[in-house]
Design a protein that fits this description.
Blueprint: H1 8-20, H2 23-30, H3 34-48, E1 53-55, E2 60-62, H4 64-87, E3 96-100, H5 102-109, H6 113-119, E4 125-129, E5 143-148, E6 155-161, E7 164-168, H7 171-174, E8 188-191, H8 197-204, E9 217-218, H9 221-229, E10 234-238, H10 243-247, E11 259-260, E12 264-270, H11 277-294
Parallel strand pairs: 3-4, 3-5, 8-9, 8-10
Antiparallel strand pairs: 1-2, 5-12, 6-12, 7-10, 7-11
């Protein structure tokens, strides 16, 4: 059996490249050079007798055989990671490990933490934040908050919140903005995690003439929101993250137009963990919270 399997390093390189569709990013994940990733994938293609990628000038795409093989390789690595965690003793008695985007964790998850604890005092939650993509199983998580359409192969998901985007600013500043075109006379605040929100909103609102990229840029959405509260300018807000600030008058909506994305917040979890009673309780709780907020 061993000589029927390709080399492990070649499989790891292929798995990383299939996830990223970019050899340089796959190389960064594996702490090797892009050339090493390319050589390992060539070795794998030679061993299989099939091309796995169509290589372009700046990007790569999986072939039909590559897509099918990637699914099986990914599932195999996930099973190995899960089995390793079980051998190491990470069982149902430990904390439920969740990964989320920093601002979503701060403004959506943490305010609900106490209610979950009151309902399930025997379940400990361990929250980690990350802006970039994570591999749920191999990075040691039970579930992660992601933005998408709800379809992740090999995973289940729970809808959490819509991504509804609109400008926000201090109440005093809001009084001076009557139309989208008025935004051209004010500072636009940007956040690194969502650099395209202003261009998309302005185009959808019919204000494409307003320069969409000018203004200060902040590392997180929370910093951008705080800058808006302090009167620095107008930020692009996400409705589900700003309900309290708007209700308390810390922020105001100067304009009514909302751009709703097709990609929304979900809790994503591997189907291999769907039967974990801790995760089942957390999923049910979040689904109830999401329904209550939407209502």
């Amino acid at each position: 059996m061993p000589d029927r399997l390709p080399p492990l390093n070649a499989l790891r390189a292929f798995d990383a490249a299939a996830r990223r569709l970019n050899f340089a990013r796959a190389a960064a994940d594996l702490a090797v050079t892009p050339g090493a990733v390319s050589r390992q994938i060539q070795l794998l293609e030679d061993a299989l007798g099939h091309r796995l990628f169509v290589r372009g000038n700046r990007a790569v795409e999986l072939t039909a055989q590559g897509r099918a093989y990637a699914r099986h390789v990914h599932e195999a690595f996930d099973r190995l990671a899960l089995a390793t965690e079980q051998v190491r003793g990470r069982g149902a008695g430990g904390p439920l490990a969740i990964c989320a985007y920093p601002t979503f964790a701060m403004r959506w998850l943490v305010p609900r933490w106490r209610r979950f604890h009151d309902k399930h005092p025997d379940i400990d939650l361990q929250l980690t934040t990350a802006l970039g993509p994570v591999d749920i199983v191999r990075d040691g998580f039970d579930a992660a908050v992601r933005i998408g359409n709800g379809n992740w192969p090999g995973h289940g998901s729970v809808w959490l919140a819509a991504v509804e985007v609109f400008p926000v600013c201090s109440p005093a500043l809001a009084e001076r903005i009557r139309t989208p075109a008025d935004l051209g006379d004010h500072v636009l605040i940007h956040s690194d995690p969502r650099p395209d929100d202003w261009p998309r909103w302005l185009k959808a609102a019919g204000a494409a003439d307003v320069e969409a990229t000018r203004g200060p840029r902040f590392e997180t959405m929370s910093l951008a929101f705080q800058a808006a509260i302090e009167g620095v300018g107008v930020a692009m807000g996400l409705g589900c993250l700003l309900a309290e600030d708007l209700a308390l008058g810390r922020l105001a909506r100067p304009l009514p137009f909302t751009h709703r994305s097709r990609r929304e917040f979900h809790l994503v979890y591997p189907l291999s963990r769907a039967g974990d009673p801790r995760l089942a309780a957390f999923r049910t709780f979040l689904a109830e919270e999401a329904e209550a907020q939407e209502g």
